[in-house]
Design goal:
The chain is an alpha+beta fold and 147 residues long. 29% of the residues lie in helices and 37% in strands. The longest helix is centred in the first third of the chain and has 18 residues.
Length: 147
Amino acid sequence: MKVLPYLFFLASLLSFSFCTNAQISDDAKAKMEANFKAKYPNAKDISWGKDSNGNYEAKFEQNDEKYRADFSPAGDWIETENNIKFKHLPKAVQEAIKRTYDEDDIEEIEEVNHYQKGIFYDVEFDAKGSKKIDVEYNALGKIIGTE
C-alpha cells in the first residue's frame, strides 16, 4: 500500500513528460515543475495537459478539492481555479447575482486566483433562450469582467 502514492507520482511525471515532450524547453519545464511544487506542495493525483490557449494546465486534488492551475509556456504560474457552491460565495457576490440574475440560471461557479487580478469569482450563467455568459465578480460584488 505504501507503493501506491509513489506510483501516482510516477504516473503524473510520465504524463507531464508525454504531454510536454518537444513542446517545451527543459528550462521552462523545470521552472514549471518548481513553481507548481512550491505553490502546491500537497497536491495529489496530478495530471498535465495543454489548453487551447497554448498554456499548460495541471489538474490536481488538494485538501479533498479539485483544482486546475495554468502555467505559461515559459513556466510561469497564471491562475488556479476550483469549483465552489453558491453558498460559499462572499455575501456581496451573492447579493449582486440576485439583483441581476436568477440563481437557477447558474451553470458553474469558480473561485479563481489570478496572477494579476488576485482572487475573483467566475460565474457562468445559462439563461433559457439566451447565450451563455461568464461574469467575473470581485469579493465586493463588483463586476470586473464578462465573456
